[in-house]
Structure formats: C-alpha cells, structure tokens
C-alpha cells in the first residue's frame, strides 16, 4: 500500500515553544492521500552598477509584481513570461576568488547568489520569481512542490508562498526507516514548519516507483476535490518558465561586466546540477547574449545523458532552436572525482 504521511503544523508560537523547551513534537501517521491507494488500480500516467536601467533598488520593490521585459537577445524565445515577482535581493555581487596554485593566466570569480536573501538564498529564488508570479496570475491559493527532506528549493518555496499569503504543501523524500517518524525541526525543516508549510513524507522507494510528477499530481487532485486552487512547481523549480530565472541571471552578469572598471571576460561558468533548470537558463542565456561562456555542470545525481535530455526538453519548451549539448557540458561529480 502506498500512502503518504502528514504531520500537523503547530502555529509559530507553538513551534517556538517546542524549540525553547526542547519538547518532542508528537505526530501521528495519516493516510491523507487516499488517491495513492486508488491510483494503484490504474496506470500511473563585479558589484552591480545601480545606475543601470535594469538593476533593482533592493528593498523598494520587494514583493512587488511587475510586467516583465526580456533581454533583447532573448526576445524571440516563446513563451515570454508576462510578469515577475521581486523576491530576491538582486543583483548579487561577483567576487574574485584568490585561490593558490592556479594555472598561469587563470582567474576564478564567484557569483554570490548565496546573498540573494536570507530565507530565499541560493539559485532557487530566481526561478521562483517567475513561477510565483504565474501562480498568482492563475488564481492559485496554494503551492505544491516536492524534493528531498532537506531540500533548499522546498524551503525557498515555502517562504515565498508565505510572503504571498499562499498555503504550501511539501512532499519530502526520506528513508523508509524515517518515513513514519516526525521529521523534526532541523535545518530547512525548521524554516518550512515555522512558515506553516504542510509537510508530507514519502519514502525513497515510493518516490522511485511513482516519480515526482505523479506524486505532485495526485496531491493536486486531492486538493482540487477539496475546493482548493493548487499550483504545482516541479523538483527544483526546473521547468521552461523557471528557466527564465537564469536567463535573467545572464543579463545581470552581462550588465555587471559592462559597468565594471576592469575588462573581465569569462570563458566558463561552472555550477552544480541537481534538477537541470539552472544550467538550461545559464546555457541558453550565455549562448544568446554577448557572454558566450561555456556552461560546465557537475551533476550530483543522475548521469549526463539524463540532464542533456531534460535540458533539451526545457529548451524545446521555449522554442529555443538549440541543442543542449552545444551549450552545456555535464559531468557526473562522482565519476569526475575518481578520475
């Protein structure tokens, strides 16, 4: 029997009491997704120049929804988002990293997306700016997403939903041993539960059997029957709309380089890859813009062919007319580390 486990979310003052008193938060197992049972009988279907016209005045437009205008070099991509929410503290700075023993004529620079905001820090906020705008435009009253038990994406989504007065439902993947236990108040889970996210656990085996798409759709079906208006965000926020977050990041980098006093040119952009959306946006943006840097990704999970195919799907969804293998290079980090 496949079922899901949901844990009651106490109000913030109660959560605070749990933290300060070190009490054990009791839980109970609930078969809240009865759809899972019935579904088994059918087929599983350089610092920014603030004078730039595009750069934001951090804080003045936070949480505002604005009409979106793409970079001129991306104006042919289809579809173009109509709006964007200002959720991140952008632009983020670019710092030179003075590493020892670098090869001659080699420099390493860091794009500090860890400074994109305390609760929403990291690369996820860039995607969520477009995804949450779409959710609000479609009249959603709640958000569904899925990820690992300590998913940064899920934490960022929960906080963004709270900012916009939307309920958030998180399907979190964990081990079979822990799936019937209260997940606790550690790491990202603490933030998620403080903002009132509904936490539902699934085992890794169940996740592998049914897949993230079917699991989120099942929860969507249940919420629709309850009269809710859910909006589903995929793993990592990685879909064609979320890809615009890192197309926009390339515009930001391009403008920072143009406004900088030093004439810096990047040959490569190196990132970790977990779901594919970031490298799709970076690769396409760099290829279309004046940047022309090669995007090199180190996958933390699936093999390179999976990511090439997934990124290709995102590119095709934007009618980009480009082969994923021409704009990104993917290596599995475990294989690379053993070489």
UniProtKB/TrEMBL annotation:
Its cofactor is pyridoxal 5'-phosphate. InterPro entries: ACCD_DCysDesulf, D-Cys_desShydrase, TrpB-like_PALP, TrpB-like_PALP_sf. It comes from the Eukaryota. GO terms for molecular function: carbon-sulfur lyase activity. Keywords: Pyridoxal phosphate. Residues 86-312 form the Tryptophan synthase beta chain-like PALP domain. Pfam families: PALP. Belongs to the ACC deaminase/D-cysteine desulfhydrase family. This is Tryptophan synthase beta chain-like PALP domain-containing protein.
């Amino acid at each position: 029997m496949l079922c899901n486990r949901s844990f009651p979310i106490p109000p913030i003052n109660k959560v605070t009491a749990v933290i300060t008193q070190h009490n054990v938060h009791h839980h109970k197992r609930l078969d809240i997704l009865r759809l899972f049972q019935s579904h088994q009988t059918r087929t599983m279907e350089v610092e920014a120049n603030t004078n730039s016209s595009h750069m934001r005045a951090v804080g003045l437009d936070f949480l505002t929804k604005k009409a979106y205008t793409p970079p001129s070099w991306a104006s042919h991509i289809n579809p173009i988002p109509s709006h964007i929410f200002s959720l991140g503290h952008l632009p983020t700075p670019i710092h030179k990293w003075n590493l020892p023993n670098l090869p001659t004529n080699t420099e390493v620079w860091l794009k500090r997306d860890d400074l994109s905001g305390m609760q929403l820090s990291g690369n996820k906020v860039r995607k969520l700016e477009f995804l949450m705008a779409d959710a609000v435009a479609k009249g959603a009253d709640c958000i569904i997403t899925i990820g690992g038990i300590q998913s940064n994406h899920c934490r960022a989504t929960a906080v963004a939903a709270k900012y916009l007065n939307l309920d958030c439902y998180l399907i979190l993947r964990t081990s079979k041993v822990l799936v019937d236990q209260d997940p606790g108040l550690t790491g990202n889970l603490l933030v998620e539960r403080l903002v009132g996210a509904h936490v539902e656990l699934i085992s890794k085996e169940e996740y592998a059997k049914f897949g993230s798409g079917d699991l989120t759709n099942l929860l969507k079906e249940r919420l629709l029957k309850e009269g809710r208006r859910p909006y589903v965000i995929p793993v990592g926020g990685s879909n064609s709309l979320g890809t615009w977050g890192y197309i926009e990041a390339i515009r930001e980098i391009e403008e920072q380089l143009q406004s900088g006093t030093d004439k810096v040119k990047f040959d490569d952009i190196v990132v970790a890859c977990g779901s594919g959306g970031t490298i799709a946006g970076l690769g396409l943006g760099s290829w279309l813009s004046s940047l022309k840097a090669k995007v090199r990704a180190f996958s933390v999970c699936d093999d390179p062919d999976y990511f090439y195919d997934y990124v290709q799907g995102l590119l095709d969804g934007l009618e980009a007319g480009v082969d994923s293998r021409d704009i990104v290079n993917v290596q599995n980090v475990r294989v690379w580390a053993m070489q």
